[in-house]
Amino acid sequence: MSDVPVQPFLEIRGIRKKYGSVEALKGVDLKAYSGEVLAIVGDNGAGKSSIIKILSGAITPDSGEIIIAGKKYNRLNPKTALAAGISTVYQDLALVNTLNYRCI
Ligand SMILES: Nc1ncnc2c1ncn2[C@@H]1O[C@H](COP(=O)(O)OP(=O)(O)OP(=O)(O)O)[C@@H](O)[C@H]1O
Ligand SMILES: [Mg+2]
Fold first, then answer.
1. Burial of 82 (0-12, 13-18, 19+ CB in 10 A)
2. pTM for the complete prediction?
3. Looking at the CA of 15, which ligand is closest?
4. Poorest-confidence range of 26-30, 54-58, 93-97?
């Protein structure tokens, strides 16, 4: 018997995003379940940050669906993403400016 819930907490379907002529996301599907630690891994420029920015409402997809806790969204903004339960910690090389890497 598995502890993984049947319904994903978060699901994206067919997410597409273009920046001008650059097709960054070409129909991305993804499911994440409550309690799951999920890593998205890919080459430089593969589209990882674009997915996270779409989920946090920083940018909007050209098409596709986002489903969070059973509610469907075509797009999110930072406020609706946060209200839906999406928090983002962005990459930062100096989270604590006064400490060097030996201290962190
Ligand atoms: N604001 C933007 N304007 C134009 N092109 C962009 C923009 N943001 C991302 N891209 C392009 O979209 C593609 C996906 O970029 P993205 O940053 O999502 O990838 P990534 O997987 O996070 O890359 P990295 O591993 O380098 O962080 C790349 O070709 C990138 O150059
Ligand atoms: Mg990135």
1. middle
2. 0.88
3. 1
4. 93-97
